[in-house]
Amino acid sequence: MRHTLEALRPATQAGLPKLAREVNPLALRRGSWRPTAKRRVVRARPSTMSDRQSAPRISWLAERWAPRLLVIASGATITLLMIQCIVDWQRQSGIVLLAYPASLGIAYVVYRLRMCDLLVLAGACLSLIIVVPTYLAKTLAKGDAPGGLLFIAIVVIAMAGASGWWLKHVARET
């Protein structure tokens, strides 16, 4: 949180370079730091020393967005390849039939047993919710019976409910 101040107390003005060195040591390479008359901005200090030590130096590196982005991209790709293999299986090599269950198994082992990440597990559940009805639609669409579409709808609802229950159970464990 930033606060603009009209005038700084001398003690506060003397403590700002020390605070700036702690936050960004490259900001003060040369010379002394003095606030200009045009703009004076002061950052709020952490309340205790433990807050300052527990806060990461570079906050975006502590986040898990980069591995998650890679997992989402690879999961979406393998899901689309599996759908293409189901819909147009004559032009496919069939390697996707081995890679898709392997990728789901690896995602389960890594993101459930080693480190718990609900986003990746939810993506795997969504992938299954997409692939299984696609397969059912391909196999049951040969007849014009409306019972096949009702069955697919029931399967989607059941899989979504089971996925939600399982993800809630996993979230409670962590």
Describe how the helices and strands are arranged.
Layout: E1 2-4, H1 10-23, E2 41-43, H2 49-54, H3 59-62, H4 65-87, H5 96-114, H6 118-140, H7 146-173
Antiparallel strand pairs: 1-2
What would your notes on this structure say?
This protein is elongated. A two-stranded antiparallel sheet has the order 1-2. About 16% of the residues have low confidence. It has 174 residues and is mainly α. It folds into two domains: 60 residues, no CATH class; 108 residues.
Brief write-up:
The chain is mainly alpha-helical. It has helices at 10-23, 49-54, 59-62, 65-87, 96-114, 118-140, 146-173, and strands spanning 2-4, 41-43.
Could you list some keywords that capture this structure?
mainly alpha; 7 helices; 2 strands; two-stranded antiparallel sheet; 174 residues; 2 domains
Q: How many angstroms separate the termini?
A: 31 Å
Rg over C-alpha atoms, rounded to the nearest angstrom: 27 Å
Shape: elongated
Task: Supply the number of helical segments.
Answer: 7
Elements, N to C (H/E)? EHEHHHHHH
What is the share of helical residues?
Answer: 55-70%
* Mean model confidence by pLDDT: 78
Reading side by side through the largest sheet, how are the strands ordered? 1-2
Strand-pairing-aware structural class: mainly alpha
Strand percentage: under 5%
**Number of E-type strands:** 2
* Poorly predicted sequence stretches spanning 5 or more consecutive residues: 27-33, 35-55
- Largest sheet: number of strands, sense, barrel closure: 2 strands, antiparallel
Tally of distinct domains: 2
